[in-house]
Fold this sequence. Notes:
Elements: E1 8-17, E2 20-30, E3 35-39, H1 46-53, E4 61-66, E5 69-70, H2 76-81, E6 84-87, H3 99-103, H4 120-133, H5 149-162, E7 167-171, H6 179-194, E8 198-202, H7 206-212, E9 215-220, E10 223-229, H8 235-243, E11 261-269, E12 278-283, E13 287-292, H9 298-306, E14 313-318, E15 321-323, H10 328-333, E16 336-339, H11 343-347, H12 354-359, H13 363-366, E17 367-368, E18 371-372, H14 374-387, H15 404-416, E19 422-426, H16 434-449, E20 453-457, H17 461-467, E21 470-475, E22 478-484, H18 490-497
Parallel strand pairs: 3-8, 3-9, 6-7, 7-8, 13-20, 13-21, 16-19, 19-20
Antiparallel strand pairs: 1-2, 1-4, 4-5, 9-10, 11-12, 11-14, 14-15, 17-18, 21-22
Helix pairs in contact: 4-5, 14-15
The structure holds adenosine-5'-triphosphate and magnesium ion (MG).
Residues 46-47, 89, 171, 403-404 line the site of magnesium ion.
Amino acid sequence: MAQTVPVLEMQGISKRFAGVQALQNVSLEVGRGEVVALIGENGAGKSTLMKILGGVHQPDAGEIRINGQPTVIRGVSDAIKAGVSFIHQELNVLDNLDAAGNVFLGREPLTGGPLRLVDRARMREEAQPYLDRLGLGIAADTPLDRLSLAQQQMVEIAKALSLNAQILIMDEPTSSLTLAETERLIHVVQDLRAHGVSIVYISHRLGEVKTLADRVVGLRDGKNAGGLSKEEITHERMVKLMVGRDLEKFQAAPPEAGRAVRLSVRGLRTRRYPDREVSFDIHGGEILGMAGLVGAGRSEVAQAIFGVDAPLGGALTLDGQALTVRSAQDAIRHGIYLAPEDRRRSGVIVDMSIRDNITLPALGRYASVGLIRRGAEERGAEAASRSLRVKAPTTDFLVRNLSGGNQQKVVLAKWLSLGPKVLIFDEPTRGIDVGAKAEIYDLMRGLAKEGVALLMISSDMEEVLNLSDRVAVMHEGRISGFLSRQEASEESIMQLAVGGAGKGTR
Ligand SMILES: Nc1ncnc2c1ncn2[C@@H]1O[C@H](COP(=O)(O)OP(=O)(O)OP(=O)(O)O)[C@@H](O)[C@H]1O
Ligand SMILES: [Mg+2]
């Protein structure tokens, strides 16, 4: 019998981008049917290492062996030929195709006739089982732009599954999924492993890593930082591997009692759920967590308040004054900001620098007599970017070239620099590492202390429980209940999220 060689060996991989040594002499091995979790802080080099395996980037040095054979991967098609399939951190789906078209993109089955057209019926038929396996509950001919972000991410996962790869790279596959979907995905991963598929799993959700990983490999500042065997995988040890030190456990400060209602929402109706009404209040200094399953309508509420998707009805008041918000400009003028869930589409402009992204909506504040004072703008951007520890050589750095988590920090820096009255966060720490998360939580707490009203939509249960003074749970377009800090638990939230009876006050 042949000696078992690892399915994947990456050895001595180095990669330099202009001004950034992203990887230095990094090695990674994965055995057959093994789930290896790759962890590290934002910008540690995880995605870059996997993009080299996936043929997106060429390494400056190093070797890749697959099943013991030295393998040169010059492009994405080489990677696919070598049996590597890649679920990217940033969505790669095409809006103008249906789900099946995305699953079979570039490999569409053709009709037998002389015209050799794409055989849509067959494509849909073949795509459906992959969608079903993920419990997606959508038809293969659903246009992508009708799906939520989470569902789009699931379509991307279905696409990777359909390639029947021997090595599957999952770069934060669950970052926009909620609990139920994440659980489903975890089962799919376990099933693939049982069928001998080797998996590299990147996630900042350490609970998930603990459940899934057979082994953990840490990266820090582009270098190997060590590893953990299955028995060694604990939250504390993973944190230490990533940040190189122990973190203090985050402790929410008790809310200050007796603050006035800052934002009041009454009878708000959105296009997604035209016959459901949403009403709630947020007090100054309060963080209202908003939990619920994907598709419950949370993001729609946020967008209606922010004016990007005009509500069908309802009334808003800010500090007791009736408020009309017809556009995002209206909202911004009143000090209401939204840090959106899909940062690539509405949070940042990736072809602009960090500085321009942070200062863009704030230009008015820095302008004097129609002239932009470049110096002040620059200092503001520097300060905001530094306070969130955005990892980049200078604030001139293009956002496109930042790691995923650091892009998210730029979105936050942009709003934090504006002195908000109401801040709506839609998945504020999606894809953000543990250390930076703690910093962002501190910042949110700090803003609350200054009297800002915060609405935090989050699918990260730990985050909702740790940070919220109160939790509103949504189910199918309405609020199924409110929970006080004391009442809120994973169980009580899940029960309301699936439509269970609730109580409580707005
Ligand atoms: N195309 C590029 N040009 C310049 N620098 C880049 C490019 N791609 C990545 N980098 C830099 O390389 C470093 C590693 O980035 P990478 O995306 O691999 O991090 P990561 O570990 O995946 O982080 P995250 O957890 O935030 O996704 C970062 O400093 C990033 O800014
Ligand atoms: Mg990444």
